[in-house]
From TrEMBL:
Annotated protein name in UniProt: DUF481 domain-containing protein
InterPro entries to which the protein is assigned, alphabetical: DUF481
A Pfam family this chain is assigned to: DUF481
Signal sequence annotation: 1-28
Amino acid sequence: MAKLTGKQVGYTLVCLLAINGLPAQVLAVEAPPSLEAVMEAGSTGLNLDSEENIIRWRSEAQVGFLDSRGKTESRTLNGRLRVQAETIDWRNDTRANFLHTQTDDATTQESLALSHQTDYQWTHQFYSLAFAGYSFDRFKTFRHEYDVVGGLGYRIFRDADREWDLEVGAGIKYTERNPEPQEKDWSPLGRLASKFRQELSDDLEFQQEISFNRSQEVENLNIMNSFAVKANEHLAVSLSYEWRRTEDLDASEAVYDHITTLNLIYRWHP
């Protein structure tokens, strides 16, 4: 038996009802669309691969080790981890850094820094930001520091080979001093930052990051310059120099750190 289409069934009903004296224009019924038509319309109406839904991931891990032996024995281990996720409007940047130095079986330097920043892009150049950071230094005046900042960012330029962002923000800072008794203080915080990246060639990349934080208790200035030489898509070698200045504003004393590292980098893009 031949199958009748939905439209043929509708026409048959109209004809039968018209024969019985009812107006055909009142009773004309459009046949419901087929399941195939509904699925086709739905697939074109919802695009899961649209630019708004695509998340671009970038991740890298660094590790470096130095073993020095002579009159004294010294071992230094440092590492960095960075995970970035970006959509058309949002950016997320999570970082973790650690440094550990042991001299003659005694720990002489131990520090850890964690941070996360979320950006929302309003225009091609302006964006708002929320930043949270934690730092620990076993041998500094301020053993623990917690920062929470909200602010604005301005993108000077960004293309495939280079990018430069400037940021300003305000928030609060919590500090815990190292000597006993461990004084704990809350204070307002101001923050400035600059992030610059330039690909000098296909295999050589330069990065510079500057951050300046000031509260009622402490002032921090960090400047880091690094060069990375790419071996392939995933592996690279990085040479970086970091200059840190930490000032205790109550005591008017400043401590300077100069850190040079040679690290192996592994990058992956899920």
